[in-house]
Amino acid sequence: MSATTARPGAADPIDLLAVGELLTDEERLIRDTVRRFTDDRIRPHIADWFERGVFPARELAPELGKLGLLGMHLEGYGCAGAGAVAYGVACMEVEAADSGLRSFVSVQGSLAMRAIHAFGSEEQKQRWLPELAAGRAIGCFALTEPDFGSDPAGMRTTARRKGADWVLSGSKMWITNGSVADVAVVWAQTEEGVRGFVVPTDTPGFTATDVPGKLSLRASVTSALAFEELLLPGDAVLPGVVGLRGPLSCLNEARYGILWGTVGAARDCYEAALAYAKSRVQFGRPIAGFQLTQEKLVEMALELEKAYLVAWRIGRLKEAGRAKAAQVSFGKLNNVRTALAIARSARTVLGANGITTDYPVLRHANNLESVLTYEGTSEIHTLVLGEAITGESAYR
Question: One GO molecular-function annotation for this sequence (predicted)?
Answer without folding.
Answer: fatty-acyl-CoA binding
